[in-house]
């Protein structure tokens, strides 16, 4: 074997070793970030959860790393955002559209962003309508939101708080899809939770989006005339998931 060949082999071996170290280092860094995100939640005192529940309408811990509810500053202003930070939340996903038709107003969205940044939280705006046109663009919006809620991205986003105006419908939709995709719930159980957390099934387009995202094909799809019957049926059958 000549000198040139030996040098080439040596270069390949060293490059491979350094590449492996680099990959391992990146993975280790990501794990460290995830640990920090977890620690923020683990270190949160039970009193922090209690205070958030008192200050934020319909505040609820979906699972480790994910919380839901209404506009956090609606009742107590900036304090609601401080409550979220005390719980361990690091990212807020605001689903408000700003349209009065959806019960939103732009000033409220602006305050949400301003206060989040002032207290050191990441703020992400992913506007959804309560009566959307169900098309590929809407499905892509939902997919983008679900990517943020995906537990495998906790090292990037930390614990997430997702909200719309009241925390019922748009929030219910994205959390319902999350339950099926990442928590591996059956769609009917996820829909039951949506209902008993005050999701309004008369929003037929959002029902359709939920079925499309989860692959659910119930024998009797919801419709406006009989929505209350299904609401009663699913809430009584799966109401335990809300406790």
Q: How would you characterize the overall build of this protein?
A:
The chain is an alpha/beta fold and 243 residues long. It has one domain: Protein tyrosine phosphatase superfamily (Protein-Tyrosine Phosphatase, Chain A, Alpha-Beta Complex), CATH 3.90.190.10. It is 56% helix and 9% strand. The chain has helices spanning 3-42, 46-55, 78-87, 106-118, 136-149, 154-157, 170-181, 187-196, 204-214, 227-238; strands at 60-63, 66-69, 89-94, 122-125, 159-163. Strands 1-2-5-3-4 form a five-stranded mixed beta sheet, with helices on both faces. The longest helix has 40 residues, at 3-42. The N and C termini lie far apart (73 Å). Residues 5-36 have low confidence and may be disordered.
Largest sheet: 5 strands, mixed
Q: Which CATH architecture?
A: Alpha-Beta Complex
User: CATH superfamily assignment?
Assistant: Protein tyrosine phosphatase superfamily
Question: N-to-C SSE series?
Answer: HHEEHEHEHHEHHHH
Q: What's the CATH C level?
A: Alpha Beta
SS element count, helices:
10
CATH topology: Protein-Tyrosine Phosphatase, Chain A
Tell me the strand order in the biggest sheet.
Answer: 1-2-5-3-4
What is the radius of gyration? 22 Å
Distance between the termini: 73 Å
Mean pLDDT: 82
Uncertain parts: 5-36
Number of domains as seen in the coordinates: 1
Strand-pairing-aware structural class: alpha/beta
Query: What portion of residues is helical?
Result: 55-70%
Fraction in beta strands = 5-15%
